Amino acid sequence: xxxxxxxxxxxxxxxxxxxxxxxxxxxxASLTVLALYLIINELTRPAAPSLTPAARASSNGVAxxxxxxxxxxxxxxxxxPDRTLSRIAxxxxxxxxxxxxxxxxxxxxxxxxxxxxxxxxxxxxxxSKDASExxxxxxxxxxxxxxxxxxxxxxxLATWDDHDYGRNDAGADFKAKELATQIFxxx
Length: 187
What we know:
By secondary structure, the chain is mostly helical. It has nine helices and three strands, in the order ααααβαβααβαα. Strands 1-2-3 form a three-stranded parallel β-sheet, with helices on one face.
């Protein structure tokens, strides 16, 4: 015997909930793979002896003085290569022109590593040949007081996305890509 028609329509379909759950699990799996890749890449990358990030990045293109402005002081905490991590936090989309109260919540969870997944700055469209808009965005982020508190609490790894690169949806044809790379690495 079937239930009365009015009861059948009282429950929302579970299919949408199941699809949302599957999409969330898929996204978490992708982030986990990315995190592992970044960690392995960071731990196996050979260090350049006695060079600061700004000096390594300034081999050509952007002047040393300009790159020094985008290097946060104090610098980023180092990830210890033999440390076993049990709490990793992820995030993206940091606008250097706005307050970043999110760091208070992240710090409260005491992550042992934070992975920046891109859009670490919003440089908008880079129109100048010297990428000054990008330099200004990274300099402002490097000295952002909310981010400085987080930098002192745990190490960071980062990858970039289009806004870090300097132009929304920019790709390999972006004319300032070499300058953008130097600035990102210095940061």
